[in-house]
C-alpha cells in the first residue's frame, strides 16, 4: 500500500519480505495495554522510533524478524513489548501452572545487557499488575552470578518471560530447572555480538529445546554475512527491517 510505503520512506525504514505488516507511527494504535502506555509516557516515550513503528506490528503479526537499527534506536522495546503482549494473550487463553514456562525467551550477549532488558520488561509487567486490570506476567533473569533461589517464587509460579545469557540458559535447560516446551517466542538481542562471541552453537542448542513452532527475532546494529547466514538457517519467511540514520 502506497500510504504505508510513504510512512516507511519518511522514517528511513527499509523492509524486505512477503506480506509486510503496515508500519504504525503512534503507540495508541498498536493495541498496547493502557497501563503500559501510561508507563511509557511517564518515561518520556511518547512516539515510537522507526524500528518500533515497523518492528512492533511485525512482531504482533507473529512474523520472524531481522531488525537492524543503530545503537540507541529503541530496539529493546521493539522486542520486549511483543513478548509481554504474547504472554498476556497466552495467559488469557491458558494460564501457566506451577513450574511452567517461559512463553517468551530473550537472549542477550552479556549479563549487564540481560539485566537492563529484564528491568525494562519487569517495569512494564509491574505497571500491568498494579493496574489490577491485567493478569500477572512474571519475568525471570537468568544470568551467571544470580542466585536462582531469590527468584524461586517466579520459577515456582511459572515464568512468562525469561531474559538470559546463553551459557546460563543452557545450563538451566540442561538441568531441567527451566524448560522451553511452552516457548513460542525467541529473541536474540545484539545478534552480531552474540555470534562474534562464539555463542552460535549455544543458541542452536537452545533452539533444539523448543517443541512448538516458534517465532524467532534477531536484532542487531549491523548485518554481517554470518548474521545473514544464521538468519537464513534459523528464521522462517522473515521480515527484514533495516533503519538507517537519516541521510545515511
Ligand atoms: P538500542 O537497543 O537500539 O541501542 P535501546 O532500546 O537501549 O536502544 O534504547 C535507547 C534509549 O532510548 C533507552 O533509554 C530507551 O528508554 C529510549 N527509548 C526507547 N524507545 C524510545 C521512544 N520511542 N522514545 C523515546 N525514547 C525511547
Ligand atoms: Mg540494544
From TrEMBL:
Organism of origin: Naematelia encephala
Coiled coil start-end: none
Stretches that traverse the bilayer: none
Domain DEAD-box RNA helicase Q: 25-53
Name of protein: RNA helicase
Motif (Q motif): 25-53
Segments forming domain Helicase ATP-binding: 56-241
Parent-record interval covered: 161 to 408 of 620
